Amino acid sequence: MINPDRNYGCRISDEWELKGLKTIVMENEFLRITILADKGSDIYEFLYKPLDIDFMWRTPMGLRNPYRERATRETASGSFVDYYEGGWQEILPSGGAPCNYGGIEYGQHGEISNVPWKSIIIIDVPDEVSCLLKVRALRTPLSLEKTLTLKSGKPMLYIHEKLTNESPERIDLMWGHHLAFGEPFLDENCRIDSPAQKIYIHPESYSKNHRFKANASFNWPFAETIDGRKVDFHEIPPRTQKSEDMTYLLDLKEPWFALTHMQKRVGFALRWDKSLFKYLWYWQVFGGGEGYPWYSRTYNIGLEPWTSYTTSGLAEAVKKGTHLTLNPQEEIETDIMAIIYAGLKKVKSISRSGNVK
Fold first, then answer.
1. Fewest 10 Å CB contacts: which of 52, 122, 150, 177?
2. Where residue 328 sits, what CATH number does that domain have?
């Protein structure tokens, strides 16, 4: 007999609301994951219970309900930033800046991040819980399904995804996972590890507080600042750095990153499908995001696996030849693992099974 109010092992419930948004809470002995089903399937909370650490960044604006809190006028770039609470977003079919491609006007970060997803609990037993979330894009014939799974005794979130082109035409797209990390977890005692070989700086200047010259390339892990200083990309600078940059980690030998707090000896790692998500975007705002929308209030990073780069929208990705194309009726499936680990100060490898060394 299944106990609907189980308080041990793995648990899952879709009977929650946050700010009026349908919310799914799933947990095991190590993790509590909170998913905003009514807002892009955002992972709002990724809590490691033993140390009470939530790795996900929260913006100063906080969580807002897109259906209740409306701006007097939407910006030309769309509404993504108005309702951006931080955390982890799924982005499709255009990433970054607004653009026009194929006769479609895309706002910032595409179509599926602020819309409700259908959800259903498919496994609910003490050893394992799992939920399925589904969405269809509004202006493109794309459907996306993802299954989130927790297993007893494992500090890992398993994600399986299926993307489908429902049309008889070829569809160009960008697809990415927009993960942001911030305080109180993130500080200058954190370290980034990645098997990247190259660092590329965004090709256009958009802030007066850049540390790096636009369109520059370097060999991982060192980059040179505008004033000639050598910077180790393993390191996280303090808030007093007052900088803001968009960078990209390229030529990954293996598809993973790890973000470790070296004093607390705990970290967040992600491993994904290298054949699909070939690039790792590294967004840096170390207190230097002046004006709209951050107003110098934010200290955060984004580490984001993407099919494409740069963060200039689908039209630019097509020009660079980094876009993904789905053939008529084509389906692609992929797997991602998010792993919490303890007792380490740095990471050398993450195996396909999620073993962190």
1. 52
2. 2.70.98.10
